[in-house]
């Protein structure tokens, strides 16, 4: 049998190494997976479609040589196919989503235990922002004056005073808590509006903003206080600037500025300022302002009583 020359062996080895290098990997690569004993094939771009997720990092191509594989060389994922497949099918559906078809909805399960396991797996892979998305949407103001960015840098730049809501898309997990980092803002109110009581009015002209309209409440960063349906309460010492971190917890139960509680509906706390019945309603985060700000973290209501999920948008 004729042996290959050292030069040919070296060339073959070089080609193989080059094909395994991250720069050689392509989004169109077909990856063969063994998911809990079931073989399947997925495009690399499907597995890496949620930027910043652990799943995207794992299958970016950089770690292909070190990932677990079965004896046939298939990438091994130690998860049940009944949980992993719905996540992949959702990502595939999102990839071909169009305005002319019904929107893609997050996977649902009749079995509570299976749902609990799915939520845990999604969180483990860092996929919550992709599988249970949240989006900013303009509700007041002129569309041409604002720019909205989505995950992973959820935020707003608006040259005119406008109002935006932060809402879920394709699933029923309400937003429990959220955090905002201020950019260059001239005026901003960060608050909550009652669901089904806040109608869009996208048109030119003045509007009163969150906290002034009926069924709305906010932390007024410009005036340094609270606004509840037009009624203002001054908060002594409240001041904000570029880079200030503002957090709303448990649907407005507590408000923190740079980690310090400034307002609360909990009577036992020193900062008791808010109506204690606020949380009984279905509430949606809302922002009125001129300038720029970023929603840096969103915490969703648990689907099951012992689990909550945080989504980072940093």
Briefly summarize what is shown.
The chain has helices at 6-20, 44-47, 54-58, 81-95, 112-124, 128-131, and strands spanning 30-35, 38-43, 75-77, 134-140, 146-149, 155-168, 175-194, 216-220, 225-228, 231-234, 245-249, 254-257, 260-264, 283-300, 309-312. With 314 residues, the protein is an alpha+beta fold.
Properties at a glance:
SKP1/BTB/POZ_sf; 314 residues; 2 domains; Jelly Rolls; Potassium channel tetramerisation-type BTB domain-containing protein; T1-type_BTB; alpha+beta; Potassium Channel Kv1.1, Chain A; twelve-stranded antiparallel beta sheet; 18% helix; 6 helices; three-stranded mixed beta sheet
Molecular structure report:
The chain is built from six helices and 15 strands. Strands 4, 5, 6, 7, 8, 9, 10, 11, 12, 13, 14 and 15 form a twelve-stranded antiparallel sheet that branches. It has helices spanning 6-20, 44-47, 54-58, 81-95, 112-124, 128-131; strands spanning 30-35, 38-43, 75-77, 134-140, 146-149, 155-168, 175-194, 216-220, 225-228, 231-234, 245-249, 254-257, 260-264, 283-300, 309-312. Helices cover 18% and strands 35% of the residues. It folds into two domains: 22-131, Potassium Channel Kv1.1, Chain A (2-Layer Sandwich), CATH 3.30.710.10; 134-312, Jelly Rolls, CATH 2.60.120.920. The longest helix has 15 residues, at 6-20.
